[in-house]
Amino acid sequence: MLVRKMTRRAALRHGMHLSVGGAMLFGLGACGESDNRQLACNEPGQLSDGDIGMRTSLGYAEESTTPGEECGGCTYFTAAGSGASCGSCALLPGQVSSKGRCNSWSAKS
CA 13 to CA 33: how far, in whole Å? Predict the structure, then answer.
């Protein structure tokens, strides 16, 4: 049986390749994700990068994961019309989903 010794330099090189490869796969998996999460009530290209950044910084998601806390029940939300699933928010640019939620959610009084 032939056993080759691996030098520290070779081990570091292999580890670096694995790290870079993993980072690339992670980056490709997230490619375009932030844009898609913002588009349920907005047309593609309607929101600028700054608008998307603002929505992301406030933690906006198209679907709330917190029971009982949805945009439709938030004080900042205004429905587009009766039965409409989209509306506007006083804090976020563009249209928002009535089923969404952000970190600034506040119950209607």
Answer: 31
pTM recorded for the entire structure: 0.62
Q: What is the dihedral of CA 33, 34, 36, 39, to 10 degrees?
A: 170
| 96 beta partners | 87
Pairing of strands 77-79, 86-89: antiparallel
The shares of helix, strand and coil residues in the chain, as percent rounded to the nearest 5, are: 35, 15, 50
Count: domains in the chain? 2
Which residue(s) pair with 86 in the sheet?
97
Q: Give the pLDDT score at 21.
A: 53
Q: Look up the domain containing 16 and give its range.
A: 7-32
